[in-house]
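Entry 14. Ran structure prediction on the chain below.
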Amino acid sequence: MIISLVLNVVLLLVILAMLARFRASGIYFSWVNLSGTCERIWDNIRRGWNVSEYWSLDGVVCKFILPRLKEFKEKIHGHPSGLLPDEKADDFESGMKEWRRILDKMIFSFECIINDNEDIEMPHMNFKTVDSANGHCFLEHDCTPEEEIKHRADMKVYSEKMDVRQKEIQEGLQLFAEYFQSLWD
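Output, structure tokens:
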């Protein structure tokens, strides 16, 4: 009886440790949907990936590429040919400097995608829940007209910052595509 109880407790602890390990590895985990969680764990063991990665495939790809791209930048010994104009083609140091600048733009793009541009703070506005007569709920601004005017101005600044950021991200992704076959050393 005691041995059976001890074995069950040990088995439960092993299962919990395994689930925690998979949770830490980025596999979507839910106690409510334990069968779905087990299916995702099985997919990860069987294929090396699971369907929860479809939910944000861009983030999954960026999380795979980013650490490798950072390590690549630290360990490079050369740069792609044709990186510099013909008159500077023999200047190795200038080529390395330009190649590192290009890699920095790529890395910045992947970091922004992973972090969802969290360094650009979105203006906050208070909302309150309002119940309508037919039982539907909706949100309503809970602020003075002056606060709403300020919020609109803040949102305009935020939108402009996000437009600039999107152009920077796009530039880094275009450089990644352009130099994809040069990512070897």
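Residues 1-49 form one domain. Will compare against last week's run tomorrow.
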